[in-house]
Amino acid sequence: MTVFKPTRQTRAPYASDPYNARGRAIPQPSKSERSPFQRDKDRIIHSSAFRRLKGKTQVFVAHEGDYYRTRLTHSIEVSQIARSISRVLGLDEDLAECLALAHDLGHTPFGHSGEDALSKAMAPYGGFDHNAQTLRIVTHLESRYAEFDGLNLTWETLEGIAKHNGPVVVREADYKTLPWALRAIPDYQGLELHTYAGPEAQVAAISDDIAYINHDIDDGLRAGLFSVEDIMDVPFVGEAFADVRCRYPDISRDRMIHEAVRDMIGYMVADVLAETRRRLDKHDPQSPDDIRHLPEAICEFSAEFREKERPLRKFLMTRMYRHYLVNRMMGQASRVVEELFGLVISDPSLLPTEVQLNCAGSHTPETARVVCDYIASMTDNFAITEHRKLFTATVYLGG
Prior knowledge:
Layout: H1 36-45, H2 48-52, H3 71-89, H4 93-102, H5 111-122, H6 130-141, H7 155-163, H8 180-183, H9 199-223, H10 228-231, H11 237-247, H12 253-283, H13 288-292, H14 303-321, H15 324-346, H16 353-356, H17 365-376, H18 380-391, H19 394-397
Helix pairs in contact: 1-4, 3-4, 3-9, 4-7, 4-9, 5-15, 5-17, 9-12, 11-12, 15-17, 15-18
């Protein structure tokens, strides 16, 4: 088989076709020349949840410095990589970009520490999962439109959000094990959660990996959590920095970091494209559904790169994600979420009036979900401010 090589006017046979999409839960006729996937992307960008990503942690708490990446800047960077890969593979760029922009909408304040704290608090009430929360946001919590709750996105976008990391269950019979928020989605079984996602969602997922690995290196170096010398022995990364030094012996440290990160992103994208083309040649898919029902992901890194990546992930875990300065921030962040949840679920009258309307008494599952949605939507700084107001008496007593 000759692998499909698209031009600007052509689309791969395995690409998602916006004009043959499976539709929206509430049918809406097109009122513009935008494709359905373009409309989905625009709805994501204009959503409240997307705007709030500017104040949510990637690794560093938002108030630690304006330079470090937030969920918003990360999502934009993921979308750029996803768009570039999709263009080369002949996929629908709008759908890939839409899924990249949407993939972190369900994140709590304070990154994974906030999610872990909220998951623990919600364990008796159906649990919490940020991917499921993203679906909850786009199908229910966003309240912008007169005719429906949520954003009324296309099936392909909802499927991509649910399954961008791969099948959610092994078999259809396993649906009862899903997180509560997923089971609460209307017609969640119709998302075919036991199969892989379409190709654009897979591109968005691999682009997320490329973006966060490289930009965490960038942020970690600039924050002083480790030095260029520390990372020179890490396969692939050390080679990139050594190559930049060789090409530009008098380059400044800041420019060297930028050039090396730039080269690493290019290297990883090239590896993904080569491996994806190999798998396309192997399986010869003729439609997005062919890709969904394959026994493996179609868009992946090569086995050789995965071997190189392991020492890098170990380095970042040890020297960045578990650095004592990050641990201090994240420990404080966990306590903020835990204490907010514990106080408010005991006394829902502390919630804003419009939020209280959906509560059903303290410590009930209904109230727990309302409190969870409220806290999960917070930015880092808003959560810190709310905690200060509720736990510091001097705020009220004028001290």
